[in-house]
Design brief:
- The chain is α/β, with parallel strands linked by helices.
- It has 2 domains: about 170 residues, D-Maltodextrin-Binding Protein, domain 2 (3-Layer(aba) Sandwich); about 210 residues, D-Maltodextrin-Binding Protein, domain 2 (3-Layer(aba) Sandwich), CATH 3.40.190.10.
- Helix content is about 45%, strand content about 15%.
- The chain is built from 19 helices and 15 strands.
């Protein structure tokens, strides 16, 4: 009996050793993102993914926005990109044209992935030359966040969803901002004796050439302009359209003519624009819906959101959405695809929606997000959802990084009042020409 038991033990040990040798080795994937607010939700989703895929370990790499894209840009040349990482449309064209991203099309077709569950415009944004390089994880639109206490103190009603602007005299939009621009003596800029050199609160902040997504591009669409390029990856420059130039001048006039916004030099970076709002130095600020978590965590005053004011051609909002990209040179393409597919899939987006940090790219999960945020505010969060009804196309071009650098540099000078929007656009057109050929 002892002999039989001994033989059985030897066989069992041998089987265990064989299974260990032949078991699939554990794969480690690097996963990169930039938003601290979303980190807990991502960690929860990845934890569930690793539970379902015990042979895959995911290492999360969190890097601040600016450093993140420096890391990604240098990582292309150094071949050190993470296996799976957050992608943004502002950088997608440059990465995909350099061959840095893995084509997901054959994996989508092989796994018969149902792409109809996503917002289709977002899905189209992640295509290049007919191939799919990303599946949307979330979306964002633009509204204006406002300090309700500042309105109360100024004795003016909160803006209505029907407020409007025009390029001639600014309309109701400018009138409201003027009453919210207060000097150290408590006078607003419509009152006699107002001291423009001693402003303690501006009507609006966050106006800078770098703020294309939340700012001036929306005003171009709302004035009847078509944008910057004639079509995605197009080579025709259309920012010199009179309607576009007129809107850009109006936007700059909010600083240089009406004086209801701090100059770019005073505001500094876009982060400083938000810091001025947090500090109560500006009463309103255009924001993307991604900023809601930061508002809930940092604002000490009563606040809410309102749609962008309607322009002569109606109300438009930039409609953007992140996606997970896979590094074309990943050593573990199957595992990386499995992770990206999970992160953008229904089950993962449901987990993330329950944290209430970003709107899911799957419309059927919107109610999950709203339920998670109903006690957090703001009162009119639905305005971000309403903004998806009429949106503008994010400009896409393989040389977008160089084109946008030129636009920022020249248009910033117009916002600062050094020259007109028309002069800025003429300078931009001359310089971007070589990048459009």
């Amino acid at each position: 009996m002892k002999r039989v038991t001994c033989i059985f033990s030897v066989i069992l040990i041998t089987l265990v050793l064989i299974s260990t040798v032949w078991a699939a080795p554990k794969v480690t994937l690097r996963y990169a993102l930039w938003d601290t607010n979303q980190l807990p939700a991502m960690e929860a989703s990845i934890k569930e993914f690793m539970k379902q895929n015990p042979n895959i370990e995911v290492i999360i790499e969190l890097t601040e926005w600016n450093d993140y894209w420096t890391k990604m840009t240098t990582g292309v040349a150094a071949r050190t990109l993470p296996d799976v990482f957050w992608g943004h449309l502002a950088y997608f064209s440059g990465l995909v044209s350099k061959g840095a991203l893995m084509d997901l099309t054959p994996y989508i077709q092989r796994d018969k992935l149902d792409l109809s569950i996503y917002y289709q415009p977002l899905l189209e944004n992640w295509k290049y030359q007919g191939k799919q390089y990303g599946i949307p994880k979330d979306w964002d639109t633009i509204c204006i966040m406002y300090n309700k206490d500042a309105f109360d103190k100024a004795g003016i009603p909160y803006p209505s969803a029907d407020w409007s602007w025009n390029p001639k005299d600014g309309g109701e939009f400018v009138q409201v901002l003027q009453k919210l621009t207060i000097d150290q003596n408590g006078k607003n800029c419509t009152e006699k004796g107002f001291d423009k050199n001693r402003v303690v609160q501006y009507g609006i902040g966050g106006l800078a050439a770098s703020e294309m997504q939340t700012g001036w591009l929306n005003f171009i669409w709302m004035n009847g302009g078509q944008g910057i390029l004639d079509k995605p990856y197009g080579n025709k420059f259309i920012l010199d359209d009179p309607k576009a130039v007129e809107a850009m001048q109006f936007y700059a006039d909010l600083v240089s003519k009406y004086g209801v916004a701090p100059t770019p030099e005073m505001q500094g970076t876009s982060a400083s624009g938000w810091e001025l709002f947090v500090a109560g130095r500006v009463a309103t600020i255009p924001v993307g819906s991604w900023q809601l978590s930061a508002a809930r965590d940092n604002l000490t005053f009563n606040w809410d959101v309102i749609p962008l004011p309607k322009g002569p051609a109606g109300r438009y909002s930039c409609f953007n959405g992140l996606a997970h990209n896979i590094y074309a040179r990943t050593k573990h393409p199957e595992e990386a695809w499995k992770l990206a597919k999970w992160m953008d899939g229904y089950e993962s987006q449901k987990i993330i929606s329950e944290y209430g940090v970003v709107f899911p790219a799957i419309p059927s999960l919107i109610d999950v997000y709203l339920e998670a945020t109903k006690e957090k505010g703001p009162d009119h969060i639905k305005y971000f959802i309403d903004a998806t009804d009429q949106t503008g196309q994010w400009p896409m071009h393989v040389n977008w990084a160089q084109i946008f650098d030129i636009i920022q540099r020249e248009y910033e000078m117009a916002i600062s009042g050094h020259y007109s929007a028309k002069e800025a656009v003429e300078l931009i057109k001359d310089q971007v020409g070589p990048f459009l050929r």
